[in-house]
Design a protein that fits this description.
Order of helices and strands: EEEEEEEEEE
Largest sheet: 6 strands, antiparallel
Strand order of the largest sheet: 6-3-2-1-7-8
CATH class of the domain at 12-80: Mainly Beta
Structural class: mainly beta
Distance between the termini: 27 Å
Shape: elongated
CATH topology of the domain at 12-80: SH3 type barrels
Radius of gyration: 18 Å
Strand content: over 45%
Helix content: under 10%
């Protein structure tokens, strides 16, 4: 079953744990089944490809590897914060908000 995650594709995040701690980037994709995110320019790995008719010598591709969503936090300007969900002022819609500043996230 897919769960509701508080981060979305396109959010700017900061890595808070692991080898790439302190690095920031934009979320490219989210896997809701395994709770993993791919962050642009972070957690780069090298993938060796076999020689083929198009690439007779083969090559090494560098790409982003997924990391667990618990290892990233949302970055709003200079503030790094957790994300919550609450009803908006009119009480008809759930919106995301920054827990540190209590402001809505657009």
């Amino acid at each position: 079953m897919q769960t509701k995650l508080k981060l979305k594709t396109g959010d700017t995040v900061v890595v808070i744990a692991g080898n790439h701690k302190g690095a920031s980037g934009v979320i490219k994709s989210i896997d809701r089944e395994t709770h993993r995110v791919v962050v642009e320019g972070v957690n780069m790995v090298k993938r060796h490809t076999k020689p083929s008719p198009q690439q007779p010598e083969g090559k090494i591709i560098e790409k982003e590897a997924p990391m667990h969503i618990s290892n990233v936090k949302l970055k709003l300007g200079d503030v790094v914060t957790r994300v919550g969900r609450k009803l908006n002022e009119s009480g008809d819609k759930l919106v995301r908000y920054a827990k540190k500043t209590a402001e809505e996230i657009k």
